[in-house]
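Hey, quick one: can you model this chain's 3D structure?
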Amino acid sequence: MSSSVAVIGAGTIGRSFAFLFARSGHSVRVFDPRDDLAEVVTALQAEVSADAAAQDMVAAEIGSIEIAETVEAAVAEAVFVQESGPEDPESKPALFARIAAAAPAEAVLATSSSTIPASLIAERLPAAAAARVLVGHPFNPPHLMPLVEVVPSPTTSSEAVDRALEFYRSCGREPVVLRREVRGFVGNRLQNALMKEAISLVQNGVVTAADLDAVMKNSLGLRWSAIGQFEGMHLGGGEAGIRGFMDHIGPSFAAIEDLPVDVDPSAMGEVFAQVEQAYGPHPTPAAAAERDRVQRAVLEARRQSDARSQGSAG
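Sure thing. Here's the predicted structure for all 314 residues.
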């Protein structure tokens, strides 16, 4: 069912969310102080229409994207607000005060923030408004990547969490609720740990940046596109499952020593040089398009696998 949705911020994440919501049939109103917002919104609507046509969808199945002149105009009729503005812990609480004052009393108020917890954003809001504030953190680009981390504050109501889950699922996303606030949430904490280890391996001369990426693409990345960390351990333990895995591998893994690492940009000259040698001095649109093409193929393979599993279960 179509509903009114507000997107505050038309940067990379906000534009992607606006596309996703309109593509899912919602009426989207976008606010951003950028001077070219009209051109951005026109281009987004054209992309939604082209994508829908490619999928043989009828016009009635897609939504619309319109410009809002102010934050207040964007959220005035919204049942769901997705804020994707600057990652500024000082400005977000003030922005959410404006959103909460202008949005309908039942609207869920979500932020795309990857570092700022909902409790900080909502700490000065009236209790009824604070109960509707939560983090809806995507992986980029959210119109392609299924995950949304839903992170409530201690004052967020269970009703708001449930409505956020329902909304994201209606847009084809795979939301996961975190049981408590933690800096970086889950996805970025995992990414941070792997990033530091990758940098340390290159800094210590164990492997080149290009070869490390080859390791990732041809082993862990390939496996993780099909199963998660714990399911992989469970499968890897044979009949004993994860208990057998830890009995067999755990002591050896525990003995792996940490290598020194320095993630300050001033210490990463060799890493920078190797990455730029392997992939060019600047990322290209063609490389991003190829990444998205492969990710879409993986998602389609997973969709077909899920469909087969559901068919056999039925």
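One thing worth noting: The two ends are 28 Å apart (CA to CA).
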